[in-house]
Structure formats: C-alpha cells, structure tokens
Amino acid sequence: MPHRKKLNEQAFRNALNPLISWSAVQVVGFFGVAVMIETVFGFPGIGRLMVDAVNNQDGNIVMAILMAIAATLLVVMLVADVMVAALDPRIRYGKG
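The chain above was modelled as a monomer; its predicted structure follows.
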C-alpha cells in the first residue's frame, strides 16, 4: 500500500501535465473536424456556415467565426495552464 500512495502522489500527478496540455490543443482539431463533417454530411452548424461564407465571399462572417474560435482557444489554453500550475508546484507564472 505505501507504493500506491507514492505512485498517486508523484507519478500520476506528473503524468497529468502533458495530458491536460494535449487535450487543450485538441480543441482546435474539433473545429476542423466540424467543418469537414458538416460539409460532407450537410449538417447545419458553424463549420457549414464558415464554408458557405467563404464560398459567398462574406468576409465579415468568416472573421467573426475565426474570432470566436480564437477566443475559445485562448480560454481553453488559459484553463489548461491554470490546471497544470495547480497540479505541479514547480510551475510558477509571474516574476522570475
């Protein structure tokens, strides 16, 4: 049993850091997959709206969708960084 406690305290905690970071980056991939699936199968959604806006040369809609995706990515990455900093005491942001 003492080995399990050490494993939980050290190994699992350190193993979560790259998993959290990788998961946050995958959010961008979901938007790309949404564009492909909605276009191929004809589902209505933000991916299909973006493809239609590009085909119709509607720059305002394209920019709005890209800004929404960028804002979502920034929030997800911020949450991931905060989670990693909370799990790993060696990581500190701020003054050097």
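The mean pLDDT is 85.
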